[in-house]
Amino acid sequence: MFEQFSSAFQHEGHLSRRLFLTYAASLSAVPLLGQTGGTPKKISFSSNPFSMGVASGDPDHKSVILWTRLGPKPLEPGGGMPNHPVEVRWEVATDDSFKKVVTSGKTIAASALGFSVHIEAKGLKPDHWYYYRFQSGDATSAIGRTRTMPTPDAKPEKLRFAVTSCQHWEQGLFTAYQQMKRDQPDLVFHLGDYIYEYAAGRGGNVRRHLGPEIETLEQYRLRYCQYRTDPDLQAMHATCPWFLTWDDHEVDNNYANNISEQQGVTPAQLLLRRANAYQAYYEMMPLRASSLPKGPNMQLYRKGNFGKLAELFVLDTRQYRSNQPNNDGRGPLNEDSLNPRNTLLGEEQRKWLFKSMESSTATWNILAQQVMMALVDRNMKGETASYSMDQWPGYAAERQKLLEHIRDHKISNAVVLTGDIHSNWANELRVDDLKADLPTVATEFVTTSLSSGGNGSSQAYDLSDRNPCNKFHNRERGYIMCDVTPKTYTADYKVINEVKKPGGITRSRAKFVVEAGKPIIHKA
After folding, report:
1. What CATH number corresponds to the domain at position 99?
2. Mean pLDDT of successive 10-residue segments in the chain (524 residues)?
3. What is the pTM of this model?
4. Which of 20, 110, 166, 316 could in theory staple to 300 by disulfide, Cβ–Cβ 3.0 to 4.6 A?
5. SS3 for 342-378, per residue?
6. Rounded CA gap, 459 and 426, in Å?
7. How many domains does the chain have?
8. Cα 229 from Cα 195, distance rounded (Å)
9. Same structural domain for residues 393 and 479?
10. What is the DSSP string of 160-229?
11. Co-location of 355 and 403 in the same domain
12. Are the CB atoms for 134 and 43 separated by under 8 Å?
């Protein structure tokens, strides 16, 4: 399909509305084929078809999404699956021996969605843990553990979740997930760069990607399958439900909407690539049907809640953003970066977020998103300020609108979760971070990469002289473990000493606390 429409685009020479709608409509029908792919046939697998494990995600107080994908040969095109639909059975129980099954059913896995399975397990009790598994033919999957959220009007006393991002296969092992599993979180937030699109050998030497830089649907599928064979990643997915969002490497480094960072790539060509990437992303993630892709478009921003304790907003700062100002380089906050037309969220998502925050009655309002919101000057030596144009400083007017909205509408205890930057940060957010005398209106906790960038550096950096908003920064690998109560939000920065070879040890590097009603970061 990619090649067919690519040729049509080249023939017409531009992205016509007719051709765009035709392509979008054709791809939007693809997920439906996964549900109506014909009569399944009996099958016997020569090897484990659940080679990529199981996962759950997007829980609410009465349901959760259960995921798996069939592929007895996950690193081969097609995954070793037949050219016909396959029946998959699923069970949810209150015990890991499945003596107390509470719901079960059958579905069809078909080639249209890469033999992936997305089950909305309904009718579950609020604030309960469950076990689940899948069966197909004579094979049974690993057992996963998941949970539902408390009811929207409940007042839970605690929530514990992990925050992670940026797991480059070639640059490091995913060993930190072992400690994350031992930490026993209720949830995991993954903030993007779940895979990297680069060709084999470009990114590092710990282990190698398969194939060239990925562009086709089959290439994206294969790359996800390779990542999902990692045993530590599988084990963490099977431990608790995840909320996931993407950043750039799920498609193309630093892409902005339909604009590629690569020279000579037209918007039409990037949208074709984006459609393939988005479909593969949906296939491989435990997402609800509301996120089914429609051609090169996919609804990923959404919200959840953990009773009255926390409202959870999952944002998308890639699909709708305008092009990075100043040629995507670093520089001062100039006319280009201050342009009020610049947007990371897009108008529709911004209106949704503002309205949703206004209606929130939760103690904590948590924004899970991708790029750093603090205005951090990265130039520690010269006089000229250096801000990243791929992050919120390049969209400073919209950033100001967001923080003004939080301030003016008295949004309760806003906490921003961020990934992307391969380093740890703890920031206090003001409407203008350059004015230290202004009140703090929100806090930001930035997680480093899980493996991207190799072992990193154990050296701590004090950036507070030029950046009064910054309270902590270092460049080790790891994740953040967050504990939330009605009175406090605690962020524990976990770091690992080794990702280039097995045996890395994960420990607490720094811990900070924010008191409800006082958006100031203190050492715990």
Report:
1. 2.60.40.380
2. 48 51 51 55 91 98 98 96 95 98 97 97 98 97 98 98 98 98 98 98 90 97 98 98 98 97 95 97 97 96 98 98 95 94 98 98 98 92 88 98 98 98 97 94 98 90 86 96 98 98 97 97 96
3. 0.94
4. 316
5. CCCCCHHHHHHHHHHHHHCCCCEEEEECCCCCCCCCC
6. 16
7. 2
8. 12
9. yes
10. EEEEE----TTT---THHHHHHHT--SEEEE-S-SS--PPTTSS-SSS---SSS--SHHHHHHHHHHHHT
11. yes
12. no
Coil vs helix vs strand at 41: coil
Whether residue 488 lies inside any domain: the answer is: yes
Range of the domain at 93: 54-147
Token pair, residue 318, equals: 């890639």
Is 190 within 8 Å of 174 (Cβ atoms)? no
The residues, ordered by sequence, that sit 6+ positions from 393 with a Cβ below 8 Å of its Cβ are 333, 337, 375, 376, 387, 399
* 425 φ/ψ angles, rounded to the nearest 5 degrees: -145, 145
Q: What's 172's domain CATH number?
A: 3.60.21.70
Q: How far is C-alpha 400 from the geometric centre of its chain's CA atoms?
A: 24
Q: Which amino acid is at 133?
A: R
The verdict on residue 443 lying in a domain is: yes
Report the length, in residues, of the chain: 524
Phi first, then psi, for residue 318 (nearest 5°) are -115, -45
- The reply to whether 187 and 104 lie within a common domain is no
